[in-house]
Every structure is written in C-alpha cells, then in structure tokens.
C-alpha cells in the first residue's frame, strides 16, 4: 500500500496528534490550520466526533513572554480570552505545583506553535498537555503564530474561534464573540467569601479586593501584613470595618468601564483609607477619581515592557497584562499625577494622588511571570499607609 | 542624560589578529563603535594591527593606526594624538588587557586619558578570579568551591582538599587558554603547570569541577542611571565541561521556568552592579544543577564578547553600538531601537524563533591535535541559524557549517558512522567531540533509550527529545520508501512538516535515493516554498522597519524590497582556516560600494561574528545557510519582487571565497555577475589552464593531473621530485603537500581522495594536481582588477618573505616587493594583464607566481577575490573590492577613476608587511612547522618607511612581543647554513648569545661565530638535523655557556641539555629551526612544540630569520614611530 508522509509518520504513536486537525479562525476572516491539543481532542471524541465539531471562542490576545506559561494560564485576568503565545515552544519545563497564580486556569483556550509534551525540568510534576486536559482547557497547536501575531497587531484583539468544526461555523462563532468590551468578568473569578491570610498577630492590616487576584500578589502582601481578601463588590463600610491600614485593589479580567459598582465602592473609600491598586485595580481607582479608561488595540501582554518611573528617570522592565488603559489627559484633569509611563507607546502605567493617599500601577510588580525590577512598589505601598 | 561634552576625542583599541577565542566579532563591535561615535561628533582614533577588518577602513575613523597592539606602540599613539578617552571594552580581551597595562604603567594618567566603558577596578574585579570570587560571595552568590594557587605546591594542596575532578583556570587569559579538567594528581600537575605558565600573573584557580551541569549565559546592558536589561539568554546544549565557544548553544534558554530564569537575571544584575561595570555590555555565565536547579555563577566578562555578537545577531539588538553610546553618557531610554524605529533600546528583546550556534573546528588542518572538546576553546569560527523551532534551527545550523552535512544526518556523510557499534556509540556519547550531535541522532535512531543518552552525554533531555522528532520524520520517509511510495507521495502537508523540522531537499533526496534536483522538483510541484520573517526584537509586537530576514515554511512574509534594482552578495559562511574575515571584508565593501552607487544590496550569510551580518550593513540581510537550496530559495523570493521598474540584477559569487564559488555553477548563469564561471573552470582545469599558458607563452612548473596514485607516480617520475600535490579545487591549501619520495606520494594522493569524499566533493571527480616543486624560489602574489573593456589595474604585487612551499596564507609578504628588480616587476604586470585578458576576467583576479633565477613561473590563478585583497587595499589606499563590485555591475575602471574611487596611490617609500598569525599555542601537540598547508587563523600588518622595521612591527603585532635579548637557539638545515652566519652575527651584535646543536655550531664556529651554548639532541635517534655531537670538550663548553642556569641537571653520560630542556627552563628567547626537506624530524618537532608551549617566537624559515635579524638591527637603531593610514594616504 502506498503511504503518504503523514500516514507513514502516524505509524508511530508519538505522532498521534497529527490525526486531529483543527482550525483557528479570526472574526476578520483569516484562517489558520493546526492540530487539536489540550482537551480539544477529548471534547471532540466525547462528542462522538460529530460533523458539527467543537467550537471554542474568545477574544484572542498574544503574550510575548518566552517562559512562564503556567503563570499566564492560571492568571484570572485572562478570563474570557484565548491566549496565543508568540514563543514557539510552550511546555518545555512542564507544570509544577509552585507556579500557580490561582487555583486553576481561567482562560478559554491556548494557541501555540508547538505545544511540548517533551518536557525537562527537575521541577516538572506533569506535562502541560495532560494538565490542560485535567482542567479541560482546549488548545490548538501547530499554528503559524507569527502570522497570527501580525494579524492581531494590525486588527486588534479580535473575536476568535478554534476547534474541529468546519471553517464556516468557526468564522460565524468568531464573529459572534462579543469580546471583553463592556464585560464585567470579576464576578466569575472573585472570592465568594472573605478570607484571611498572613500572620494573624500582625497589626498591619490590608483589605485586598479580589477582582481576580494573582497568588503571587498575596504572597508578597502576606509577608508584611495580615490580609483580608474580600469579594469584588464588598462594600466600603464593610471594608473599613476591618480597620485596614491600606486597601489593596487587585488585578482582574474584563473592561473597567463596566465596573461602575466597584468604582463606586472605591470612590467611597477614597480619603478614608490609603489605597493601592494594580492593573484592573489601577483602572478602577482611576475611574473612582473620575478619570476615563479606554481599550488598547491589542493590549500589553508580556514581560519586557519598559516603564519609566518619572520620579527617578529609571526604567523598569515590567511584566504586563492589560487590554485597557487609563487616559493620561483625564487623570491630569482629576488632579492625579502620572508616575509611570510605558516607553514603547506612552501609555500611562502608574498614577498617584498625594492628597488622597492613593497610588496605583498598571503593570505587575509581583511579576510571575516576568522581571523583578518593580518590587520596590510593595515598599511604596507600605509607605503610603504610614 | 545626553552625551558627554567634556570629551572630544576617543581612542578605540581593536582586538588585533583573528585568533582562536577572538575572531571577527570584534571587527563587528569595533566597526559599530567607530560608526556611532563619529556620528555623535567625536574624533575617533583607532588602533588595530589587523588589516583585514572593516574597522580599520580609513573612512570609519579620523585616525586609523594599523600598528601592533603593545604597550609601547599604543603609548606612542596616545602621545601623538592626545585622546581624551580610551574605550577598551569593544576590542576583546586584547584591548582590555592593554588598557590595564596602559593604566598600570601610568601612561593614561600622564597623558590625561580617561577610561570609558569600564573602570580599572571593574575590569580587575571581573578578570581577577580571586577578586571576582570574593565579590560574588559578598553579594551572596554561589561559586564553585575553589582556591587560588600561585605555584605548584599550593595548587596541589588545594586540589587535595577539594577532591578530584578539579578544574584549572588561569587568571587573565583569553578563550580558556590553559584551562582544563584533571581527574587525578598526575593530570593535575601537568594542567596546573601549564596554567601557571599561561597566566600573565602566574595565578590559577583550582576549582571543583561541575562538568555535566547545565550552562547558561546572560547578555546584559547597563547605563549610567543603573538601568539594566538582559538582551538575550543563551542555553548551551553541551553541558559544563565544554568551553562555551566550543559548545552548541541555543537562544533563548529552553529549559528554565520563569521562576528560575528571573532569579538568574537578578543574580546577573547583582553581579554587574557589584563588579561595577557602569555602562555597556557584559555577559555572565551560570551553571545549573539539572537535579535540583541549584545555581552557581561561573564568570563574567566586563566587555562586549563573542557571545554579545551572537546575542546581537540572535535578537537584532546591537549591543556594541549601544555600548558605545552608553560609554559616552547616553542612557538606554534615550537610544532608539533601530529595528522597530519606534520603541526605545531600554527593553528586553523577545524572540519568536530559536537560534542555534554551532562552532566550526579545523582539526583536519592540525594533525596531531586530538578531536576532543574541553574547557579550552579550539574552534576557529561559528555559524548561527534561525528557525521557528529548535529542530529546524539545528538542522539549518548544521548545513550552514559546510562540513558536508545536509542536516542532522540522513545524508551521504552519515555513512562514516555506520561502523560504530552500539557499545562504541554509548561511550562516544560521553565524549564531547565535534561529532557528538551526530552521535546523538544515531543513538536515538538505533533505539537507545533517551534516558541512557541523557545519562551518558549530560545533554538535557529536552534537546534529545527534540532530536527524536527529526528521527521520527526520517523513519517515516524510510517507511514510505519501503512501502514503494515515492517522493510524489509526500504531499504538501508532508513537505511542510519535513521543512518545519529543518530537513533539506538533499536529506529528503537521500532518504528516497534520488537526486537533490528531483527532490526540489517534487517539493516545488507541491507548492512548498519558504517565506521570510523579520528578526524584529519583539516577536512581532511592533512592525519591523529593518529587513533582517530568516526563512521558515510558514506564511508570515515581512518587508518587501524598496523598488530599486537589487544585487545579491553571497557571503563566506563560517570562519575557517583558509577562509576568514578577509572575505567578509570584501563582501562588506561590495555592499558599501553598490549601496553608494544606488543599488539595493542583499546580503546572504550565516556567520554571526561578521560585519556583513549586521542589520545595517546591507539593505536586506538574509541570515541563511549558504547551500544551493537556501540560496536558490532567496533568489526565487527576490525575483518574485521583480517589476517593470526594478529587478534582481544578479548575484555576486566571487567575493566570499570558495563558499559562494562552489554554488556558482548551479546558479543560472545569466544571474552571475562578473567573471563567467566558465573562466573559473578554465583556471581550475589543469588541461585548459596549461593550454592557455602555453598559448600566452608564460612559464608554469611542469606537472600533470592524476586521478589515482599510480598516475601521480608516473607524473612525478617524469618531472622529478620534489613535487607539490594538491586537490584541484581548494582554498587555503587544503591537503596540499610537498612530497620528496614515491612512498609518501602514494599515501598523500590516497589521503587526499578520502578527504575529498568526506567533504562531499565526490559527486564530481576532483583530480589531484602534481607539480614540480621549485625549491628556493621567491613567491609572489598579485591582485588585479580587470573590467569588461579589457582595462586592467594591478592592485598590488606582494613578495613573500618565506620561500615558495610555505602556503601564501601563512607567509609574511611585503608591498612593494623589497627584492625584485624592475624587469621582474614589469614582467609580473604584463603576465597578470595577459592572463586576466585571456580568462576574460570582469572583477578581481589573484595570481601566484614563483620567481627562480629570474624566471617567472605562474603557480596558479584565481579569478576571484583573494585573501590578500584587504591587505593590498590598506597598503595602497585603493579599495579593490569596492572597485571590483562596481566593475562587475558594468562600470569601467576609467569611469571609476573619474568618480574618485581610486585614491591616490600611497607614495613610494612606505613598506607594508603582512604577517600570518598561527594557532599553535592552542594545539600544543601540533608541529608549528610551516608548509604548503595553510594553518594561520589571522593576520597583522606592519607599516614603516623601511622594510626591516615594517617586518619587525608585523612580528610584534603577530606575537605581542619581540624576542627579548638573550639566547637564540639555532638548528638549521644544511642548505640554510651559509646564510646563517650573517644572521648569527647580527643577533650577537644586538646582544643575543647563540645556542646551537652540533652541526650548526660547528659550521658557525668555523665561520667565526661564537656559539655560547652547545645543545644536545632531544631524542636518542640519529635523525636530528645535525650530526651527533659528543666531544668532551664541547660538553665543558656547554657547561660554561650555561653558567646562567645552574638548575639544569646533566645526566651521567655527560649528555648535553637538549633544546627542549633549555626552552622549557626559560633559557631561550628565540628559536630559529629550519628543517631539511621531508623525512623523520622528531627532534625538530619537539623543539618547535617546546617553543610553542613556552610562548617564545619560533622561526622555521631562513628567509624569515634573515628578515627578522635585519629588521631588529634597524629597530634598535632607530626611534620608534607610528603612522596613521590617513597620513600615509595623504603622503605626509
């Protein structure tokens, strides 16, 4: 019997993946071919491999970090999104129990050039793929991620669908995908109840609003404080009743413009307690003082963004993950000072209102993944409450 | 902060000749620095002894000194030019060491010169292993258990306390020279002694060996505001134990989690801050235990290094250029990123591809050197390849090496591994050799479990498992073939799959047992062809504005050309012995000249060390292997952009050495610019060539062409011995040999044919040439340019110092010829023009002549750029390669003269001498005798108004020092003895005393020369150059002569100390050892090797000895002067 190359390759079970072709389609019509990965193949076969196939949809963003995929995948801020990694080999060092940024992955799916089951690390406890299957996260691999990056760069974070369904169905699904614009996604990821971490005997107390908080933020905070983690819509009075030295506003997914309730709560807190915000927390804080937010074309997602700290002129290489940003001109009119600026595109990366003792940054001083250049901000947080 | 205005002039120190461990990456970095500092308005003064560099082009600096890089010379330049600052961090270890000497001797202070880029304190903290270790412990980093020894005794006790295996590292040395691992005390004593000798401060570090740990390197930049960035992380596929310069390395790091990587980054920043490198680039090396991730810091370089060149090419971030800007006060955030042109340089590049670097070694040129890799660097060059994944990048890298591999095996070359048994293979895996990566593939293919392979090789399992993908694909092709499915069944998906793993058409052809052409045809029929993506520093996040491109089998085409007529220039690939930076120089000149003339220039090359692969050299850069398939793909891509208004005019193949020339015959002939490839064939084809010379009535040595050893013997019988044998199609004297008898001739021809087979030349028959060897002839090189109208310009006539028989690349040579009379010179000129006419050359031609008894013989002609083009251009001020490139595109010499491309020729009265630099100190077991096989890695130039001084400068440049007055050991072949008396008396006059073996001593004494030291034989055999010397009175003489070295012991037989004893004891400052012809020469080799080991000059030809003696006399009798090229060309 004559064999095609792919037939011949499939004689070896290690090439199994090639049996499961899948496609990725953007709302703008571009089509990419790849193979099912993560739980996609399983979902397909669970469904009996039906004609309709599996469709995964979400707003697609790309992340340029070359390592740190486990932290990215478990970062609640990616809720509602499909994350594409620009680095081609993802999964090289497997998955371990230390690099979780939350209890599980929240994103809708991941896209890679080459999803590696061939792992090597003394830290590895699982392979990326079997872990994705465990958490039912679908993935597509073998994608020309460079071309996809250029599409996203040129068209913005568009609706996207991938799966085993026919192209036309995928296209329709991608076009129907509403994206994160106008979406309050904090409810999905926030804690249901208040919980405390850190040394119970510590007099220094932080109330941390969980809009989708990353574990590494809490790990930093609990080193010097007793932290009460509260739900996204925890009222200002309830928060104040916990006698915090400072209120911390976490990162989180979705559009800050949709978070009127949260902005209202924060606005109630301003002036009564020092407040420090990171990422979505920064955006909510900005809204609380009356500034505006807007959606960036394709956001900042990576670990190499240069941010200038205006006070010293020093540049930090920062970890970033945001689709939305605070308008610089609106901040000024609200009496806030821009403290940090992104050198790539001038986006506001930090602000401060001295009189109100509020301060926030758009990027991630806790890194994870990413450089440690901005740890000083946790010191700055402490100072704010002195 | 803007740039500094308190300094106006800056002295940049280059790195000197290309040597192992310090190659043309410093031409690249120095060139960037000169360009950028001049743009910033500084007066740039450059000193470098290497003429074959772009940085020494007179238009890159205000003052260009091609002078030796020693304290005295640079002091003279400083006193003449009064620079405000010295920038020492872009010229490798050479520049750094020189800066330390200039500081230590007070020259900088006395002349008010400040060091910029790195402080003395920072340099010594980084370079002095003792201080470095203390500094690192102070900031809490872990270093391997170690201690410093200043003598052998100390060393032994440290080794005992640490336990074996231990590593010996000498302080202040380059490229790991003198470094080595020792498994027991015996081995350790040897290593330690060597290490102490090679360290300029006689200090070694004895440390715990962490061989087998994973090895990483981070490339950093820091500015004066303490902004720090990592430009690139590099992971070595070869674990600790192999010098990083000899390792296969990959960027970015593949097997570190972000958690581990960020800690390493923190450590690297802590290191650069503690060492105190305030501005510029540095690299920091780490070892990581694969079992538990524990990390140690190994070393840091407070300067731009080979790895920085690699990191720059791997990411698009121009480290050297930015380091130069930082040195004059700029901050990282004030410098734009040229690649995106919108974002600043203060960021960390991210990439969306994998870069693999593989070193290229030259063991075949260095018989006697074991093909074993270790902690001292031995490679002479390297290549880099970019692929979307590691397998693709690895296979592209392997085929870029030009070592006869079409990829990772699956090619005709792999048959040499067929006979390896599985047991042998297992033990080979644990031996780091240049072939290890091929052994890895073979082991996987034979089904040896990955765990076992990892355990043996200590190569991280991630790499091994990635190679497994290549093996699986290859097996699938074999299954297809077995099932009778031909190549047409691969299908487009199959082709793309194979191509994305980096398979070449040649490999696919091999798997299916068909020709490359058939495979390519099948692939194109499926529509599987590559597209080209930009290296953009940002993984596509921002649009790139600089077309620095690599191929992939995806569809992400970036950056079309601008719409001008385009020219492709094929580069020279990896540096190797015989094909080095000289050819890159020619290619870069072609780019510059064609750019100026309004063409869009396209460079293709895969050598990350070079100026040609800088993103701002050519208009478009393809970083691709120089194989037929890869080049043809680029031609197809570029032709795809042809329009009514602009098109691809053609390809220049004659400037990059043999690499592009080998491709010429397969590239469509109407695309070849310049001399027709047919003419190259004529010059290479023995029959056609002889016929042509006969027609021109020009002499050539008798000879013939043989395809078997029998034919060779017949020819030799007819023309008489000695004969010169060589393959007909070579560069750098590959396997060239002078043969004196039939036995050796038979062997030599057989060896040559097997080498040719290995190099893949066997597809077509490449016969061996057998020529009468002209003994004692003077060898001449001529470089010339001919235009299409038949006008010829003689660029330079070079007279070799060494007689014919020493490879021209290893021989010193001078412009103008110091001993030739006017008649010979005009004969050389007319021969050159007539040969160029007859070959219808359009562009460069190099012709080698031998002059014997006023007869001029042509040895060979090469209608292409030669190794000497840069030297001639520097010596005369006329940029030959620039002119040649224009001529190839149709300009005439007279038009170009009018355009002003011919600078006024250098006024007579100046001599320029080129000297070769040899790698023997790296290969202690290799005989340093010069011969027809080229072994030099680089060259230097000396300039003066006297030939003697120019020659001495060239020696100073090549060796770093002149022979200190003391004892000169002479052991000469009979034919050289007559000349030796003059040399000996000159040296005595200069304060040397003579040491000689019996025969030479006898001859010298009979001719009135006092021989102070009698020297015995090394071996017990009778085969020394001299007869046996044994008279008791002579032994007494010897003892008298040796009164200065009481520690030498005489054995009971009153045996005289041998030359090796004396050299090793440091009693000899200069060796002149000329061997008689061919034959047993054990003594001579021991002597030369001892000289190499003791790092004293060893001269092996009488002509060079004569030139040195005469030169030294002038040198010591005249005041020292230095001259810049600008003065030279202006005729001051």
Verbal overview:
The complex is a heterodimer of chains A (386) and B (1132). By secondary structure, chain A is of the alpha/beta class. Chain A is built from 13 helices and 19 strands. Chain A has helices at residues 5-10, 40-46, 69-73, 128-134, 145-155, 167-176, 186-189, 215-224, 236-241, 260-269, 280-288, 328-333, 376-384, and strands at residues 21-26, 31-38, 55-63, 81-85, 89-90, 109-111, 114-115, 138-141, 159-163, 195-197, 205-209, 226-230, 246-249, 275-278, 293-309, 315-326, 337-342, 348-353, 358-361. In chain A, the strands form 3 sheets. Chain A has a 10-stranded mixed sheet, sandwiched between helices. Chain A has a 7-stranded mixed β-barrel with strand order 1-2-8-6-4-3-9, surrounded by 4 helices. A two-stranded parallel ribbon of chain A has the order 5-7. In chain A, 60% of the residues are buried. The mean pLDDT of chain A is 95. Helices cover 37% and strands 18% of the residues of chain B. In chain B, α32 (974-989) links the parallel β34 (967-971) and β35. In chain B, α31 crosses α37 (1102-1117). Classes of the chains: A alpha/beta (386), B alpha/beta (1132).
In short:
The complex is a heterodimer of chains A (386) and B (1132). Helices cover 26% and strands 28% of the residues of chain A.
Evaluate the radius of gyration of chain B. Answer: 29 Å
- Stretches of chain A where pLDDT falls below 50 for ≥5 residues? none
Summarize the main sheet of chain A.
10 strands, mixed
Number of helices of chain B: 38
The biggest beta sheet of chain B reads: 7 strands, antiparallel
- Oligomeric state of the chains present here: heterodimer
The helix-and-strand class of chain B reads alpha/beta
Radius of gyration of chain A (CA) equals 22 Å
Strand order of the largest sheet of chain A: 10-12-11-13-14-19-18-17-15-16
State the shape of chain B: globular
Mean pLDDT of chain A, nearest integer? 95
Helical percentage of chain A: 25-40%
